[in-house]
Design goal:
about 1150 residues, alpha/beta, Leucine-rich repeat, LRR (right-handed beta-alpha superhelix), 14-stranded mixed sheet, 13-stranded parallel sheet, 40 helices, GTPase activator activity, membrane
């Protein structure tokens, strides 16, 4: 019996098999060796007991005398049973301890890790039987999976352990099925006692009930006598085994404790190092991935400086906090696809988990596809979830959909704006330069609506209609109702097409915006009714500081309404009323109101150009000028004030306006006496730097007197160009009365003999049928006659024609023009007209002009989509000898650009050469596809001498294609303007090669062309290598930095005819400028007249280098622009003193935007 126990224990738990056991640790090997030694001793003792039993006369279990034993035999049996029980107990304890040792890893063991590791024999038996039987019943147990499992089950004599696993599993299942029908083993000898090994082996072949029965039978057997000495020996051996086990356990505990003490400090140090590394990574990522904090002034310069000309944002609109944390995607203009969007977002990946609190978001100047918009919107959502937008106050979504089809553009706007719909803390929103109709405005509702804190709003150059303007006013800004005021301080609404309806809608906003300080409502196509309504609404704005109402039609009545408003605006500093049609009565009322209300004393800039003003209103203006102590700039050009009006202004300027710097009075019918009076009025003013009086009627003698006077006062540089002056020897001061008959005769002569035609009244207005008749009659056109009209050039620009007005013009004028007509100017003729009417107006006019073989067609400043271009086909096609074609500021889409290229430029045939010599395509929205379409037709435009493809939202690939096409096909260019394209490395290479092949090139403009220093150097080398002598060069906005401008200087030394050099906004510091000046200060650039370095990072040291070293060597220099730099007050004083000492005080431009930094003096 004992031998069976030992054998089965050994078979079940030892690793002594034909298959190599898994490698054991030193501790495990020791424990296993000790257990095996103890087991051998027990086997020997059990063998001795078994030998005695076999020699005696014992009865089997089936003997009939079993139940009739004597007292003595029972006592012996009991004693023997007790002794064997002790032996069996020792064996069980050894087995239990051995079972606690780690076994080789098996797949079944992984699932059993959470079960008790130390069990009694009966417990292990029960677990094994239950689990395996359940698996059999569920048909889930697959039998043994390794040779080791086969031997553990005691089946190595029935299963081929070298057979495939599937065969082994089949053999085991067959044995188990046969075992179900085998007879019970209850008839075994008295020595058959079940241990854990019996249970584990038998449980594979017998049901659970049989196990229970065998256990009961084993308890009922009689045992032989056992020697007490042997029992004592077994007990001592078991005790020794316990001691050895305790020693090993203690050793194991000490080893684990030692490891804890050694490795725990190392682990803590590792954690600390990891934390510091993470903090360093976050700090580094904030710099690398543009989590940049900049002050408000710097933010203004870097984020919107390039839009100042279109829609300048005032300083007050950007100062929201002492610092800004800006989220932006840096880089040049480009088409952002889904892949590119992922790349842009990825630049923030390292810090996205713990982003900073952003205050400003800008996505301007890139064109996004809908897929890209979804990527960025998801990025915004993740940042918002992490609290990154808790302090967000400013969103700049200007110019994001250029070149996108309308449906896609609307989806892009909606996707990005909806991504920020939960943010209601915004104070500034800029949506300029996006083509927004009513649908577009509504697409932005996620961003625009319910912004209670909004202070600064910009809608510039959006082409907004009257309906869209109404939505902005009522649903965006006045969403809380007509009784709740807004918090608006800035509202810019420029270059839109809202007309009267928009003016009336936005007028409702003004009484509810009492905090407004900066209002720009200009170029809206508003006519008399709308302008008057808007003017009357201004009366509530008592805190206004800047007012721009230019390019509207207020007329005298509107001017009086403006006057009533400005009388209560004591804080006004800037007023722009250019082309506002206020006329004399309007100006008189406004000037008086400014003087009486006290605002005149603080006015720094006043522009009343293009308002049909005469000498009659100049005395009132003069009275205001006497009180304007702060006035620096006065503009009165394109009026009819004559010498009399000029003298009235001069008289006031002589005694007032001590801070005056500039007067612009071009094209005013001023004669010699009036011009001389103006010169005398300003020549003694210390701050005065510029007098523009070109386009007047100053005699040659008068010009000589003016130049002599200025030279005697060392101010020759004050006088601007007189290139367009009309030398008229007749004195214009004598006023002659002319009879009505004489005027009629004069008009008749003009009608017959003049080479050009345009309306005398140039003010913007709506022209219906009645007004069209008046205008034609006033210009000498007899509308009731059908006699032929002979003009070489006609212009109908600057007025908004209705259907009926266009029909009158077409029938009474255009249809009578003869074949000598060569130039047609229909620029800006549909402003404010609904789309359907605008298309009809264009169609009527162009149809009336069909059949003329023209040299020049100008359709600029009309909102032309593809339909608009096709509406002009009667004028544009056929034109077999067309030389000049102008499409500027039309908002032309990619589709419309393709029509122009393929059907107009190539109208003579795809293989025929175009007759075009000049092609102007500026400020459109044609994007990538439009640029490629134009580039593809240059092969048939080899006669081009002027190419202007600028501000058309071309990305890098399209820009490179344009440069490649110029490089391949054009050789006669005199003027090339590719500003606002995006030339990267390859594009710059193509551009440089193209320039090197233009020997006649004189004017090169590459402003904001993404060239960087390397690209500019390539261009300059091309100029030098081909000995091209430029007259004008503009490389502004190309991030030259110090290295780039220094390299450029060396290459400009050979430009002996260069008159104008513009290097604005190039991140140049004083160090780079000093090197630039040092290279060019000798005999280089002898013809230079103008140098512009605005918007750089120049301090006093660099500016002084220009004035003291560069200026004295340039005899022709008349203008130096250094504004928007960082020149200290002391530096400015030094510059002015130095120029005065050289007799060139007047060449320095305005420094109004200069940011004086006292620390720059210490450089």
């Amino acid at each position: 019996m004992a031998a069976q126990i030992a054998d089965r224990s050994n078979a079940a738990m030892s690793f002594n098999s034909g298959e190599s056991a898994p490698e054991l640790s030193k501790l495990e090997a020791t424990r296993l060796a000790l257990a095996q030694e103890q087991k051998k001793r027990i086997d020997a003792a059990v063998a001795r007991v078994t030998g005695k039993k076999e020699g005696g006369k014992r009865k089997g279990l089936s003997s009939p005398d079993t139940g009739h034993r004597s007292k003595k035999s029972k006592t012996v049996v009991d004693v023997a049973s007790d002794q064997v029980d002790k032996k069996n107990s020792i064996a069980r304890r050894m087995v239990d301890r051995f079972s606690a040792m780690p076994e080789p890893e098996r797949e079944q063991d992984i699932d059993q890790q959470n079960k008790p590791t130390t069990r009694s024999v009966s417990t292990q038996q029960r677990y094994s039987a239950e689990e395996q039987e359940e698996e059999v019943e569920k048909d889930q147990w697959d039998g043994p999976t390794t040779n080791y499992h086969v031997k553990q089950l005691g089946l190595d004599d029935k299963v081929d352990i070298y057979a495939p696993v599937a065969q082994q599993q089949h053999d085991v299942q067959r044995v188990r099925e046969r075992a179900k029908y085998m007879p019970s083993i209850s008839g075994e000898s008295i020595n058959t006692i079940k241990t854990s090994s019996d249970s584990e082996a038998d449980s594979d072949f017998a049901p659970k009930e049989r196990l229970s029965q065998e256990s009961e039978e084993s308890d009922a057997v009689s045992l032989p006598e056992v020697d007490a000495s042997e029992t004592q020996a077994l007990a001592e051996e078991a005790e020794e085994f316990d001691k050895q086990t305790a020693i090993q356990t203690a050793e194991t505990h000490r080893t684990r404790t030692k490891r804890v003490f050694v490795y725990t400090p190392l682990f803590i140090v590792a954690i600390i190092v990891l934390v510091f590394a993470l903090l360093f990574a976050i700090d580094w990522s904030q710099e690398t991935f543009q989590f940049c904090e900049i002050d408000a002034k710097s933010a203004e310069v870097r984020l919107i400086s390039h839009t100042k000309a279109k829609c300048p944002a005032p300083e007050s609109s950007l100062i929201m906090a002492t610092t800004k944390t800006v989220l932006s995607f840096e880089g040049e203009r480009e088409l952002v696809t889904e892949v590119r969007a992922h790349e842009l977002v990825q630049t923030y990946a390292n810090s996205e988990a713990q982003p900073p609190a952003f205050t400003h978001i800008t996505l301007r100047n890139k064109s996004y596809t809908i897929e890209a918009a979804h990527v960025i919107a998801a990025f915004f959502s993740r940042l918002e979830a992490r609290g990154a937008f808790a302090q967000l106050t400013s969103v700049d979504f200007a110019d994001m959909i250029a070149g996108r089809p309308e449906d896609e553009a609307l989806q892009v706007l909606a996707t990005l704006c909806d991504a920020l719909s939960a943010i209601k803390s915004l104070t500034r929103i800029d949506l300029s330069d996006n083509a927004l109709g009513e649908k577009g405005v509504r697409a932005c509702f996620g961003l625009l609506q319910n912004q209670e804190k909004l202070q600064h709003m910009y809608f510039c150059n959006n082409g907004i209609s009257a309906a869209a303007a109404g939505v902005i006013a009522e649903e965006v800004l006045l969403f809380r109702g007509q009784d709740t005021p807004t918090k608006l301080e800035t509202f810019h609404f420029y270059n839109n097409m809202s007309g009267d309806g928009g003016a009336i809608a936005l007028a409702k906003l003004l009484p509810l915006s009492p905090a407004l300080k900066d209002l720009r409502f200009s170029a809206t196509r508003a006519q008399r009714e709308g302008s008057l309504t808007f003017a009357k609404a201004l009366a509530s704005l008592t805190k206004l500081e800047k007012l721009d109402l230019s390019d509207n039609t207020f007329k005298a009545q509107g001017g009086e309404a403006i006057a009533a408003a400005v009388k209560n605006m004591p804080n006004l500093v800037e007023i722009n009323l250019r082309d506002a049609a206020i006329e004399d009565d309007g100006l008189v009322a406004i000037a008086d109101a400014l003087r009486e209300g006290g605002a005149a004393r603080g006015i720094t800039a006043l522009d009343v150009s293009g308002n049909d003003l005469t000498a009659a209103s100049m005395p009132a203006l003069g009275q205001m000028l006497r009180d304007s102590a702060a006035l620096r700039v006065l503009q009165v050009e394109e009026n009819e004030i004559g010498s009399k009006g000029a003298k009235a202004i001069a008289k006031s300027l002589k005694v007032g306006s001590p801070a005056l710097e500039k007067v612009v009075a071009n094209m005013n019918e001023i004669g010699a006496s009036g011009a001389l009076a103006l010169v005398k009025a300003v020549v003694d003013k210390k701050a005065f730097v510029k007098l523009d009086i070109d386009g007047n009627q100053i005699s040659a003698g008068g010009v000589a007197n003016i130049e002599s006077l200025l030279e005697s006062n060392n101010k020759s540089d004050v006088l601007g160009s007189l290139e367009d002056n009309d030398d008229d020897e007749e004195e214009d001061d004598e006023e002659e009365e002319t009879s009505v008959e004489d005027v009629t005769v004069m008009l008749d002569k003009v009608t017959i003999s003049d080479a050009s035609f345009e309306f005398e009244n140039k003010s913007r207005e709506v022209v219906d049928a009645a007004r069209a008749l008046q205008l034609l009659e006033a210009s000498g056109i007899k509308v009731n006659e059908r006699s032929p009209l002979h003009f070489k050039s006609i212009s109908l620009r600057g007025k908004s024609y209705t259907d009926s007005g266009a029909k009158v013009i077409a029938d009474s004028f255009l249809s009578r023009l003869q074949s000598d007509l060569k130039v047609v100017d229909l620029a800006d003729v549909i402003a404010g007209r609904p789309e359907d009417e605008a298309l009809r107006v264009l169609s009527v006019m162009c149809h009336a002009l069909r059949g003329h073989a023209l040299d020049e067609i100008d359709l600029s400043d009309n909102a032309l989509g593809e339909k608009g271009v096709r509406a002009c086909f009667d004028l544009l096609i056929p034109q077999p000898t067309l030389r000049r074609l102008l499409f500027c500021n039309n908002g032309i889409s990619a589709a419309a650009a393709s029509v122009i290229a393929q059907e107009i430029v190539l109208q003579n045939g795809k293989d025929a050469q175009s007759t075009l010599e000049e092609f102007h395509f500026y400020n459109n929205m044609s994007g990538h596809d439009g640029c490629v379409a134009v580039a593809n037709v240059l092969a048939q435009c080899k006669k081009l001498t002027l190419l202007r493809y600028a501000s058309a939202r071309a990305g890098p690939e399209a820009s490179e294609e344009m440069a490649r096409s110029v490089n391949t096909h054009l050789r006669q260019l005199k003027s090339l303007d590719l500003s606002d394209c995006s030339f990267e490395e390859d594009g710059a290479t193509q551009l440089a090669e193209a320039i090197s092949k233009q020997p006649n090139l004189q004017y090169l403009k590459l402003r904001d062309a993404s060239l960087c220093a390397e690209g500019v150097e390539k261009v300059a080398k091309a100029l030098t290598s081909s000995n091209i002598q430029l007259v004008e060069l503009d490389l502004s906005g190309n991030e030259l930095a110090d290295e780039g401008i220094a390299a450029l200087a060396l290459l400009l030394k050979s430009q002996s005819q260069l008159k104008v050099l513009r290097l604005d906004e190039n991140e140049v510091t004083s160090e780079g400028l000093k090197e630039f000046v040092a290279v060019l200060s000798a005999d280089s650039l002898p013809a230079l007249e103008e140098l512009s370095l605005c918007g750089n990072e120049i301090t006093a040291k660099g500016a002084i280098a220009v004035v003291d070293t560069f200026v004295p060597t340039k005899m022709a220099l008349v203008r130096v622009e250094l504004d928007t730099n960082m020149i200290s007050d002391k530096g400015v004083e030094h510059i002015k003193a130095s120029l005065a000492k050289q007799g060139k005080a007047n060449i320095l431009g305005s420094l109004e935007e200069n940011d004086g930094d006292e620390e720059s003096d210490d450089e």
